[in-house]
Amino acid sequence: MSANAGHRGQAETSAGSVWELQAGGYHRFFSQFTMPVARPLLDAARVTAGSTVLDAGAGPGHAARAARARGARVVAADLSAAMLACARHADPLLPLVRADAGTLPVAGGAFTAVVAGFCLPHLADPAAGTAELARALAPGGWLAVSIWDAPARARHTGLLADAIADVTGTPPPTPAVPAGRLRELLQAAGLDHAECSTLRWVHPVPSAQALWDGLLASPVAAAAAVLRATPAIQRRIRERFLTLAAALTDAGGTVRLPVSAVISAAQRPPAHGPRGYRPTTAASAPQASGLMLWLSRKMLSGS
Question: What mean pLDDT is predicted for residues 201-222?
Answer without folding.
Answer: 94
